[in-house]
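I am still learning, so can you show me any protein sequence you like together with the matching structure tokens, please?
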Amino acid sequence: MALVDLAGLSDVVKVVIGSSAESIKRLHADGTLKHIDLMFLDHYKPAYTSDLKLCEHLKLISPGSVMAADNVIHPGNPPYLDYVRSSVAEKRENFAKEGNDNDNEDLEWMGRMKNQYHKRVAKENISTDIKGNPNLRYDSTLIKSFEPTGEPKSQDVWEKRPTRSKDEW
């Protein structure tokens, strides 16, 4: 019996196995995924930013959506934090540039991640073509997390709530 069934959530939770980007695209294309109310990122760390941008591009993220990302402080995810902390003006400037807004930074960081994810690096094809929606601004809150024992956990979760820029209304 799957944990989802055991929790009594099989009518609302569907476990999808495979590449996150390909799964998001497929679920959106077949009409299963129309909007994201809550997105918890706790997967292949180098894909956090590209997956968020893909969801923005597909208009799955909107003001009121909540994003939670694990492990962004330790072991860290600088490209993701840079993106969600960027202002609308910075994102628009980067959006107007050719290519991804952080190509060199992302590639440098991904190089450091190869040791941690050496078994997955060859399998993943992270897109840098999708630029996301530069008009979304994220309000971020650092939430310290704890183990069930009450001990502080080494990972932190950042909550993101997108809002539109004033001149987009």
Summary: The two ends are 48 Å apart (CA to CA). The beta strands are 38-41, 66-70, 136-146, 152-164. The CA atoms of residues 99 and 129 lie 7 Å apart.
